[in-house]
User: Fold these one by one.
Assistant:
Number 1:
Amino acid sequence: MFYNLFCRHKCRHDEVIILGMRILAATIVLLLVLLTVLLFKLAWPAITKFGISFLWEVRWNPINEVFGALAFIIGTLTTSFLAILISTPLSISVSLFISEICPKNIGKILGVFVEMIAAVPSIVFGLWGIFSLAPWVQDVVTPFLKNTLGFLPFFQGPSYGIGVLTASIILAIMITPTICSFCREVFRTIPEHTKEAALAIGSTRYEMIKIAVLRPSFSGMIGGVVLGLGRALGETMAVAMVIGNSPRLSLSLFAPGTTMASVIANEYAEASNAMHMASLGYVALLLLVVTLVVNGFARFIIWKWSPKI
Amino acid sequence: MKIIILLGLLLSCLSLNATVKINGAGATFPYPIYSKWFSEYQKENKDVEFNYQSIGSGGGIQQLLKQTVDFGASDAPMSDEDLKAAAKPILHIPTVMGAVAVVYNLQGMPNNLKLSSDVLIGILMGKIVKWNDPALKLQNPNVNFPDKDILVVTRADGSGTTSVFTEYLSNVSEEWKTKVGNGKSVSWPVGIGGKGNEGVTGVVQKTQGSIGYVELAYAITNKLNVFALENSQKKFVVPSINSTSRAASSLTDKDYNSDLRISIVNAKNKDAYPISAFTYILLPIKQGNIQNSEIKKFLLWALTKGQKFAPELHYAILPKRLSESLIKKIKLLKD
């Protein structure tokens, strides 16, 4: 019957499809709004009780019902930015190597391997982090950093292997394929004759990559980094397993820390009272806000720094 | 052909009707023994099917209050408010017992070092930070402790294990009770948090100088070093399923006749391991409900024949007097 209806009014065919698409598109927006509303509802008791001071309160004590998110916010931002710091140069070099330097066939195989990292479940990363990465950080990375950069407050204090640094390294590895494949796509859009032109005016291969590949892809690369950052901010399982989960503030990167996502994952299932649950909701709301703000900021950078050709 | 299909459908309908499906949810700690029990019980009683979701003690109580499950399970007894909120009166049936072992990893150290409750509190409060602290040496005079930092490893996720452990700490130290308290997640003065028993086990195994707490089964299966803890009678006891069972043997008749929401940490028995606890099945008292009467039959089986499966899975069995009084209690309930 519907089929007949469509056949008779051929001109309405498109309209129906467009209407359907509009509804679907609106649903996505609605989903985000509903999600926010739901989080607000969950967090409301905590919002009314703690107000904005929740943001700079350090204590998190489910027994006395005193909750504050500062340690979690700082933990999330530190690990994510550290991960970006490690991962960005790595991913850009890897994608440059794959798309510009190594032979095409080997590059394809390498690319598949890098992208396969993205398919590894985060719990596997977490286990690997506890059993391999953490001891390595404790025995190799920490002494090296202490000997070279030990004068900085970030590299002082005891290291147990488990801590902010290990979590950041895990995150860096996890977001590398994301940034990498994005960068490769960006590099692929650069026309071959631009590169040839650069070579023709006498530049070396290094200079060609610098002026003909890297410079025009700058905003694209930032886009990739933002995608990676988005993943790093929300990553939960692997981080919860290696960060040490202690809501105490410390300047040292060797010290244990905690993140917003991991505290929610850890304490949600067995929250001891209603205020505890509401505070976890508040943290979730903040995580949403932080993610949106960071994304917005990055978009602003792209828009501002896009090369004007 | 049609007749065969019809017959088949009829048969499957009949067999579907014959099985009683029972849903339960709750604690993760007894999950291995419960699933063993369900599968063994089903071998004998083909018409009953159990489905148990190990979503955590808190979740089990919530589901029970919402009446989405036929029974709940919890490591910690229900609070008075929760009991009041329940639609039907709820009976606490202890099924097996568990212990929390304090484990450590320090190269060259013998197993079962002695640890008094004062020193344990000192370590967890951050007052004792080195292994060669005189307080530790006092109880273990023959051991040469190295000058190494102690790393405290706690549970980061809310858990019944933490609840039992902190209950013990609050029981032995007034300072702990006022400064930290007890609950499923507490604000630890020192240390780092691992996720789950397996997380704490992993960190302790990988870190020299660490001290953590895990369920006894994890300490045994992962061959971790465990402390012999000082109990209420000033005796140092190694955690084992026997010393855990002992913790319940000091219960009195008055305890048996109560609702059994009792703590057995720091029990009076001289061979009792101090950090022991029951795990409960929460049974709503209903009449004329087929699921409910099947659960009662199952519980009677679990408290008698079922108990022998407990030790191989590292759970402590209930003392005979307790299981007998429980059986009496269950039999008194009307179907």
Number 2:
Amino acid sequence: MSVMLQQTTAWLEERFDLSGVRHFVAEKGVPIHAQKVWYYLGGITLFLFAVQIFTGILLLLYYRPSAAEAYESVQFIVTKVRFGWLIRNVHSWSANLLIAAAFAHFFSVFLLKSYRKPRELTWASGILLLFLMLGFGFSGYLLPWNELSFFATKVGTGIAGGVPIAGHFLLRLLRGGDDVTGATLSRFYGLHVAVLPAMTTALLALHLLFVQRQGMSVPLETEHRLETGEPLRQMPFFPNYILRDVLAWYVVLAILAALAAFYPWELGTKADPFAPVPPGIRPEWYFLAVFHTLKLLPSHILGIEGERIGIVAFGLVAAFLVFVPFLDRRASRGARSPLFTVAAVLGLVYLITFTIVGHYAK
Amino acid sequence: MTRLIDAPRRGDVRFNRRTFLDALLAVGFVSTAAAIAYPVALYLVPPESGEPDTSSVVAAKSAELKPNSGKVFKFGSRPAIVVRTTDGDVRAFSAVCTHLDCTVQFKPDTSQLWCACHNGTYDLGGNVVAGPPPRPLETFVVNRRGEGADEEIVVSRG
């Protein structure tokens, strides 16, 4: 076995210079400190994304993206195809765990201020990836073409219609017309399986490249201690850390398998555009906070439509998030920036409370 | 136990704690791969078509099928062909060429069934006359139902 490996390496070596790779593998280290547990979240998100690609490709074998057949094809997958229920449940559950892991990753990096110089671009690409994941969730939700997703998409795309100036254009662009129809399904399908994956691949490559080139960030306290001459305790990535990563993935896989097996994702009833909206229409949990906030806004604030103001505000928050590393000058200098810590904590508290309130609201 | 672990085996390959743990790890990874590969492999195999085998179908109205003509119709999920010979006899066959599954058609000039893909030719008994088809066409049973202008040609499987 090892002889074969050696021969293969030698064969490759004669053709490509592998010294860079070998050097990278030998040198890559992971800092050891009190906050190192947060390093796992990026890897877990990546793992779940891989699960999504894998199960997504499998679902493509039987799924049919048309208003007439989408629901039936998913029904076919979960009832007729062997282990189809498993693939579909894993895809649905993994999507939700992926969003949760991405949010946890986001908040841990935010609170540790790991975005500070020189990692501004790693952060910005990560925020854009988070938005892409939300886009995956939004577009994928509609694909089974059931009642719940149909009306949730009506509401969701309707919110896009509230964007000032470009609203109507955006709404028609998303829906492929004035209403949510089979044309919307075609668009969301294309978005979900081609456009978003292509964008994610490019951004993810960039994100990972940055992480590899710059190495892992260490918390400010650790960095200060390093400046006083204390040596950085590190663990080799290969094989020490990667094995720990794999262990974390195993735990996630076990959770995923248990959820998929014991809590099947409901298919609901087929969407009927002419049926009255069933009560309790709400988006996926990760959109609940925003959804509920928009619902609570008064119809008019200072003569402007309340919802419109809300949408602009969320747009500004999104833009703010991308530029956090450039705005947090103190962290870039290596100083504490309690203002940003407070902002992150408030954001987290807001998201959690509004998600819960939105869940129980009538 | 110590004796087992430290016992040298075949030359300088030693069965020590490290190789044992490596083997354990490998078994774990291989089992995971197998646990994933099994459902995926079964998933990839398409399930049997939910459509039941059609046993009988109305192919055409008697009146619309002129002598020395043929009509391809849907028999379940596959095409079939019904022909009326010059002397008025009605016959039905599977229209799926036995060579590579193309759909055959009736050729009025030679009164034969002809596959355009590779020039396979069958006579009106379904037998191969020329070309690459390895077997004759599957023959169906023809019945007539109704009377006069309403008479229908009903085709059924053997």
